[in-house]
Amino acid sequence: MDHRAERETELVNQCQSCVKDYVGGGFSPEQQPPKLLWLKKHLPDTWSKAAHLFDLPDWLTFQATGKTVRSLCSVTCKWGYVLERGGWDTEFLKEVNLDDLTGLDKLGTSISSPGEKIPDGLSDQAATELGLLPGTSVAVSMIDAHAGTLALLRYAPSPVCETLCIISGTSTCIMALSETKALVPGVWGPYQGAVLPDIWLYEGGQTAAGSALDHIVHSHPAHYAELTYSKLNSDLGDSLTDPALHTRTRDVHVIPDLHGNRSPLALPWFRGMISGLDLNSSHDNLLTMYLATVQGLALGVRLVIERLKLHGLRFTYISVCGGLADNPLYLHVLATVTSLPVLVPSGGNMMCIGSALLAQCAAENCSPTVKLESTSSGADYVSYCLIPELVKFYDQKFRVYRHMVDDQLKYREMMKSDN
Q1: Which H or E run includes 44?
Q2: What's the maximum distance between 2 C-alpha atoms anywhere in the chain?
Q3: CA–CA–CA angle 61, 63, 66 (5° rounding)
Q4: Under DSSP, is residue 26 helix (H, G, I), strand (E, B) or coil?
């Protein structure tokens, strides 16, 4: 959610390099080239002293092993590394004023796939600090949401390229995989081998998801400290599948992009919108605003899905983990808005399970694909299906949602200083 580098993002995206094609057509302030440029400009002493520049997962394996191995997942998804074009593009680095990195030592010259074993394993120092044996296998890392994706795929009843994975929390990552490469505007990727070897990853997302819901609820006059989402759900009604519960927002619509739109608009300046405000500050009004925000989050996922489908991706299921996976209202709405069954695996923390799978791959010298094939059957999950009586209602809500998006873009144009 760090958007300090918005100005630097604009500068990076002025470049003509095809590297931009592999991040949905343009970099985000949440990705590393703009952040590196910000660091170089605002903290020049730190910049000049840095011997290595790491993503967090690679920093952790460096601390564990003393090796500067970088994960293909990290450098591909966040740093502008393009495997099929030979990796680092020094001409791109020069074009965006990061020419002092073209030696590549600071970025990393040893790139390995997630789950590969890092040579020599756990260092003596790390072994002492962790109470483990020196030489214990350490796997090449993966970004947390991508590890969650790996775990969700382990539980998926359909082929991995037919499962849309949502890793939810403060923000959401919306992950799709394909055996074929496509350039999808506004969706990060295509990322080759970032989760599974020889498979392309497409990464959509919502910069503010759980954080947007928290903000709308906590800032309402009727909110009180002990109020929980479970309490809000029970106050809405006895059954979360009751059509009357959902249609109370017929005249209230929320776009919860309170911190920019990551996908598919890819506009960090985009903001949230509410249509239907009145003077009501009661608990009942809080319920309506809460419901409308949940609906807005699900409608935003549908917007990403429609963009992916335009470029040939197809889905049989949605699999969800993280904070919103504990909210049955969101899951019912998501299933109905997208017309896809929604699955929530019951195996525990998916990010931890995905990380454990990588460690197992390193210990057994096998790829994540092999590990998925050997463990993916018979998983337990809770499923949510669409509510037929509400399909038309949510189609109407989605049309309103799209109109509101278009309207904000028009407002931005109208308010330009040269108009």
Answers
A1: helix 44-49
A2: 67
A3: 85
A4: coil
